[in-house]
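Fill in residues.
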């Protein structure tokens, strides 16, 4: 009897152990989200006076190949004149086309057009005229437009004003339109405020507009260091803008005082790096410093957390660097250039350009061609589950 009880106990223990293992095996699998990057989009402005329509080049990491006129290939039509900026947000990409007065909304995976936003139809009284730059926050895109801005060359002053336009990414309706300064360019959102850089077409009195999204109230940040602000990014609750500075009045019309400035939300402005172009991976700021008329080029990374500048030295040169991008996942840096005109020996503005890819340490990785006038480089980032 005792032996039977002992055998039963052993059997029950074995059954319990088997059941426990079975329970472990039956636990539901929870996929883990992993940030990934599949390639880089290069927005090319084309050439307005030729005229050459803007285009989109896509460089695929997997195939190590570049697709030219990628938007046109998929959709059977041109982007239009002066494609100027783009943004990947969620499953879509938004392409800002200045002189076509449109924002193309495409599926980032297929580049198939989801919606073409005609700014003239969305906004009355010319508020949507000439969209320039874009950012996104809270399910909305925010776009700067020149609006009624006008340059009076005889008086060397700007009249009228531009706008920041908020557009819902679900129904594509305008949820807000905010008057700012003349010829606004860069745009960023921090908390409940949207900021825009008012370039004033480099005619003086430049500023940064600060708009309260709850009330619509607009105020301006001014400083002697705000000369010709043309781009903006928000990192860690602070704003960083690219200022093109000024140009000499006589040949070679050398560019001076160009750089990246930090501006706190209270309006304090400090210069952090010399630069003529910038890009951010969300943590740091990567810059090109190639002032017009000087014949010099340098690269650097402004480390935001440390507040220091580190040199970035590409192992291969770029002839006429005019745009920079960084992949926030891989850390690779991309520098775009115009091509050299074979007849003049100078930069060509109506021939296809090219892009060079480097590792974070400056080591050359690849070179690929792009369309005419590369102006913005955007990572094709997303999330996969494994």
């Amino acid at each position: 009897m005792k032996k039977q009880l002992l055998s039963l106990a052993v059997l029950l223990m074995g059954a319990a152990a088997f059941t426990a293992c079975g329970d472990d095996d039956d636990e539901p699998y929870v996929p883990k989200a992993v940030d990934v990057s599949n390639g880089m989009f290069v927005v090319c402005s084309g050439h307005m006076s030729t005229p050459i329509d803007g285009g989109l080049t896509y460089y695929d990491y997997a195939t190590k190949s570049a697709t030219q006129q990628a938007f046109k290939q998929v959709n059977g039509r041109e982007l239009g004149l002066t494609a100027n900026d783009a943004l990947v947000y969620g499953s879509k990409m938004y392409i800002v086309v200045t002189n076509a007065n449109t924002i193309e909304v495409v599926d980032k995976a297929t580049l198939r057009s989801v919606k073409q936003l005609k700014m003239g139809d969305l906004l009355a009284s010319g508020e949507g005229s000439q969209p320039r730059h874009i950012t996104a926050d809270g399910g909305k895109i925010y776009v700067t437009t020149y609006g009624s801005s006008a340059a009076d060359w005889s008086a060397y002053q700007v009249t009228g004003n531009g706008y920041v336009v908020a557009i819902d990414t679900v129904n594509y309706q305008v949820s807000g339109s905010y008057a700012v300064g003349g010829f606004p360019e860069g745009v960023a959102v921090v908390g409940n405020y949207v900021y825009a850089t008012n370039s004033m077409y480099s005619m003086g009195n430049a500023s940064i507009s600060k708009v309260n999204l709850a009330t619509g109230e607009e105020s301006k940040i001014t400083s002697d260091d705000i000369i010709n602000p043309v781009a903006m990014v928000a990192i860690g609750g602070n704003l960083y803008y690219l200022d093109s500075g000024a140009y000499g009045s006589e040949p070679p019309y050398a560019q001076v005082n160009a750089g990246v400035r930090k501006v706190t939300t209270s309006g304090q402005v400090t210069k952090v790096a010399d630069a003529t172009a910038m890009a951010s991976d969300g943590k740091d700021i990567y810059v090109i410093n190639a002032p017009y008329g000087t014949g010099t080029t340098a690269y650097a990374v402004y480390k935001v957390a440390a507040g220091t500048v580190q040199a970035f030295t590409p192992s291969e040169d770029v002839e006429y660097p005019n745009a920079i991008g960084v992949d926030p996942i891989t850390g690779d840096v991309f520098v775009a250039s115009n091509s050299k005109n074979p007849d003049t020996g100078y930069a060509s503005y109506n021939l296809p350009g090219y892009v060079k890819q480097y590792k974070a340490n400056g080591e050359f990785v690849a070179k690929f061609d792009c369309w005419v006038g590369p102006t913005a480089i955007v990572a094709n980032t997303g999330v996969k589950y494994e």
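The helical segments are 2-25, 70-75, 119-122.
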